[in-house]
Amino acid sequence: MEILAFGVQADEKPLIEQAFRGRHDVRCLDVFLTEDTAPIAAGHEIVSTSVNADLGPRVLETLAAGGTRLVAQRSTGFNNIDLKTAERLGLTIARVSYYSPYSVAEFAWTLAMAVNRRIVRASTRTRDFDFRLDGLMGRDMHGRTAGILGTGKIGEAFARIAHGFGMRLLGWDVAENPACMELGMRYLPKEQLLAESDLVSLHVPLMPETRHLIDADALKTMKDDAILVNSSRGGLVDTAALVGELRAGRFTGVGLDVYEAEAGLFFLDKSLQAVEDDTLARLVTFPNVLVTSHQAYYTEDAVGQIVEATVKNVLDYRAGRRSENVLVPRS
């Protein structure tokens, strides 16, 4: 049986091919699954997709009509999948429920420190042999307050790093994490957390109730000199409202590894094309903003775990087993 994998990055391809070797043939495509590319999957019972795949009703209907029965997504998030349509069509949907939380937590801290200490600006200057320090002053994180929205595995890992910096820890979540409380974290309502935090980092899943969790009102609640980091899902932040606050001169720094309209942009080379997204074009012009292309998870450790979990999902499906990774079970 040949498995068709969409949206495979160059670094990811050898890991996928090695993991499936001796089990199933796998064909890796660098194109993402969309309405236009879905017909390619015809004749493939098993399809694997990336986090930015379009798995809305039309794509799922095309896959089902072409004989696909399992969609194995190589990510934890599944807000891009219409689960009700998948169930109606008899498609099995699986994801990766767990991979290294340190990959994302460490990258979130990389963004925080990069904007705090003006690393991008400093690097650009020194390439031009400009060694002035003007405009490069940052702040000690020691003794300041870190507000963590979402204190699951990734949020906990982020909190442990913050604790190592000697920061005061504030948390917000639907349930308190005892491990975070042992670090001294206090759980507060969102508005109070935002008002007291010098650094705000987002680690919650994107759901209808969390879309634009950081909206215009939330942004206005934050300190003028706060740092905002989002390495979770772009839809958590109202980007247009964020641009408005940045234009008003607010925030020491903003680090974004995700963007709410990233589908069709991130993971692709758009350098020779006109930028059609006015909000993103404006966002990247601010000197205190750093945008990266959804790479927080992208370590050998995390990607290796994602690939192994995907292989397991395929083997479980073939054997008729169900695991915690299954979102829509085999009918």
Outline = globular
Residue fraction in strands: 5-15%
**Residue share in helix:** 25-40%
Q: Can you tell me the number of structural domains?
A: 2
Distance between the termini: 20 Å
- Assembly state of the chains shown: single chain
The overall pLDDT, averaged over residues, is 96
Structure classification: alpha/beta
Which strand order does the major sheet show? Answer: 8-7-6-9-10-11-12
Run of helices and strands: EHEEHEHEHHEHEHEHEHEHEHEHE
At CATH level 2, the architecture of the largest domain is 3-Layer(aba) Sandwich
> For the report, how would you describe the main beta sheet?
7 strands, parallel
> Roughly how many Å is the radius of gyration?
21 Å
Under CATH, the topology of the largest domain can be stated as Rossmann fold
Domain D-isomer specific 2-hydroxyacid dehydrogenase NAD-binding: 110-296
InterPro entries: D-isomer_2_OHA_DH_cat_dom (IPR006139), D-isomer_DH_CS (IPR029753), D-isomer_DH_CS1 (IPR029752), D-isomer_DH_NAD-bd (IPR006140), D-LDH-like (IPR058205), NAD(P)-bd_dom_sf (IPR036291)
Protein name: 2-hydroxyacid dehydrogenase
GO molecular function, one term: NAD binding
